[in-house]
Specification:
six-stranded mixed β-sheet, four-stranded mixed β-sheet, 24 strands, about 15% strand
Length: about 625
């Protein structure tokens, strides 16, 4: 799988050094993890008199530098968009609340209206304006859907949220003849309204009258014609492939969101936003500028916070003992588990190296490994979460209206003894701190399983994001527990950008045999309706490991297309038991901002879901 080169050895040592540093930092204080958590769980109230002007400087997620400006990046670029939702708004804005799919107060449209058979969805736009003064209209929504279809016809990897045969397949959109502000979606297949709403939070509205060209200065094309939609899409993606022109290309200055791009550093990924003075949505920026700065490490973010050079940033859990210091320096600190965020170890079921695909395909192997994840131990460990996390054993968000049937009781609790029993019962000779091997090959209930030969070992490498620090730390914790049962797991850290670009069966199949498991940190599902569609269903665009399970597909289809409110609970229960991935604790997202910056509390609470609303912020007088 990975070669034991000096470079990879250095990476592994770097991961270990990160954990040791975290341990030393955390252990320097005497505050208990529970007391630390209590110190940041209260959301500060809005305060002070608003002033106009000032620049808010925001730290980007370390290691994830924006490289795409077009609202519909390919799957490999998911999560690397510039100012997502700030320059172009989707039909509906995702909610930062666990019991809501969308925030209807900040969206571009009124709530969808469904026909009795749920196959016609009518949406009326709110009064919104493009930065050139033109009103946002239904034709812009139709244009956006047609471009999305053209993108997916070229490649299923051109939208991270696509599953073949599902939205936008089988969907046509028309602008009604009676109103320029109303659009109707006609569906071949009815969707669960909550699930469809979650997709509409991803349908960014683009300017149909300004972007409907196939070359610079070219004629305006009828985008409803598929060949024209393809030509337009190809032109726009080509324009988006030259980062040095992002801030100067007039295409990207036509926006409907609260901000426009002022500058972009193609070397670092840092960028600056200026207010769109013709923005007609809620908020209306009082800030003169919003700067997003890129960072390579969480420690660098902390240093800039301490120096007072950042207005807003996130705090790595390894630095929870610094909370009191930051508060004394004039910062608010708030933290909570992000709604609908899933932390997991993703397996690659298509990695043939050393028969890994055959080994990990066995449910009892995955169950044994889950029994080795010490969630409570890692949560309280000063070297992993430092108390800043909560146990989680399913895809349902904490406090979700769609909880699994087992509630908060782990289906595969931490138990090395249970893990050992599973292995020995299925034909493995467990050699503690040695090398566990298959001694009873075959497909019977007490044998190792299909394709696993005699003498097979359980050995693989986890590619772990190098930040936040708890990511490699929890993987090392798992590796340690596994080693005691003769399962050899190496942990190598990688930049998050590298994982996104290279490790995904759905968009980088050429690398299938180059990785066995990856831990990229958190994956956001739809708040309010955390379906695993696209993540664990066969052919899903974000099914990075190529997991396939007919029963899981049926459960996901039921929650996606049906109207039964219990279907999603059944899905979360079934996936937790099928274990397409290992479940880790849900980390608290720790957000830091200057106490001279204020606004509605919800505009700061949403930061735990990585939703930025600087148009609602202001500096106090």
């Amino acid at each position: 799988m990975t070669h034991a080169s000096n470079r990879s050895r250095a990476v592994r040592l770097a991961a270990l050094a990160t954990v040791v540093t975290a341990l030393a930092t955390a252990c320097s204080g005497t505050t208990t993890p529970t007391a630390v958590r209590d110190s940041y769980r209260v959301l500060p109230k809005e305060s002070g008199s608003p002033s106009t002007g000032g620049t808010a400087t925001i730290a980007l997620t370390p290691g994830l530098n924006p490289t795409s400006v077009f609202p519909y990046p390919p799957a490999s670029a998911n999560g690397t968009e510039i100012a997502k939702g700030q320059m172009w708004r989707a039909l509906y804005r995702p909610s930062g609340q666990g019991d809501q799919v969308a925030d209807m107060t900040t969206g571009m449209a009124d709530a969808p209206v469904y026909s009795a058979d749920r196959k016609t969805v009518t949406i009326k736009l709110k009064p919104r304006t493009w930065s050139n003064g033109r009103a946002v209209g239904a034709d812009d929504v139709v244009f956006s859907l047609d471009l999305l279809k053209a993108a997916l016809k070229e490649s299923a990897a051109n939208w991270s949220f696509y599953t073949p045969g599902q939205f936008p397949d089988g969907v046509t959109a028309t602008a009604t003849a009676t109103a320029a502000d109303t659009v109707a979606f006609h569906l071949d297949t009815a969707y669960n309204p909550s699930y469809l709403l979650s997709l509409l939070t991803l349908l960014y509205v683009m300017p149909s009258q300004e972007w409907n060209i196939a070359r610079t200065g070219g004629p305006h094309l009828d985008f409803t014609q598929p060949k024209n939609a393809k030509a337009i899409y190809d032109y726009l993606t080509k324009q988006s492939s030259t980062p040095a022109t992002f801030a100067t290309n007039p295409l990207w200055q036509i926006v409907n969101g609260p901000y426009r791009l002022k500058s972009y550093d193609a070397t670092t990924g840092s960028y600056a936003l200026a207010p769109n003075r013709r923005y007609t949505g809620p908020g209306g920026s009082r800030l003169a500028e919003v700067d997003f700065k890129s960072f390579t490490s969480a420690a660098a973010v902390l240093n800039q916070l301490k120096a007072g050079n950042l207005t807003v940033g996130t705090l790595d859990s390894s630095f929870v003992t610094q909370i009191s210091t930051l508060k004394r320096a004039g910062y608010h600190v708030y933290g909570a588990p992000a709604p609908a965020v899933l932390d997991m170890l993703t397996f690659n079921f298509t990695d043939h190296t050393g028969n890994f695909d055959k080994v990990v395909a066995q449910p009892y192997i995955r169950q044994a490994l889950q029994h080795l994840v010490d969630q409570q131990g890692d949560i309280t460990s000063r070297g992993v979460y430092n108390g800043a996390a909560s146990a989680n054993y399913s895809t349902a968000a904490l406090g979700s209206p769609y909880p699994p049937a087992f509630g908060d009781k782990a289906p595969y609790p931490y138990s090395p003894a249970a893990a050992e029993k599973l292995l020995t019962a299925h034909g493995w000779k467990v050699v503690p701190n040695g090398s566990t091997t298959c001694v009873r090959p075959g497909t019977a209930a007490d044998q190792c399983g299909t394709g696993i030969p005699q003498g097979q070992t359980i050995s693989f490498t986890i590619a772990a994001a190098n930040t936040p620090s708890y990511v490699p730390a929890r993987d090392i914790s798992l590796s340690s527990a596994a080693g005691k049962l003769g399962i050899k797991i190496k942990v190598e850290t990688k930049a998050l950008d590298y994982l996104y670009n290279n490790y995904g069966h759905s968009y980088a199949p050429a690398n299938d045999d180059k990785w066995a498991a990856q831990d990229y940190g958190s994956l956001s599902l739809a708040a309010g309706y955390p379906s695993s569609n696209t993540v664990f269903n066969t052919g899903g665009s974000f099914n990075l490991g190529g997991f396939q399970d007919t029963a899981v597909d049926k459960m996901i289809n039921a929650s996606t297309f049906g109207a039964d409110p219990k279907a999603l609970s059944a899905e979360t229960t079934g996936i937790a038991k099928a274990l397409p991935a290992l479940f880790f604790p849900a980390p608290d997202i720790l957000v830091v901002w200057k106490d001279t910056l204020s606004g509605p509390p919800s505009a700061f609470q949403s930061l735990t879901s990585y939703l930025y609303s600087p148009e609602q912020w202001y500096f106090t007088k």
